[in-house]
Amino acid sequence: ANGGIKFATNNVERARVTNNGLTFNGDTAQANALDDYEEGSWTPTASSGASGFTVTAANCIYTKVGDLVTLHFEVYNPTSVTSSAFKIGGLPYQIASNVQVIGSVMVQNVDFPTNRTMITMYGFSNEFRLYGLGDTQSWDLLNGNEITTSGFIIGTVSYRVA
Question: What pTM does this model have?
Answer without folding.
Answer: 0.82
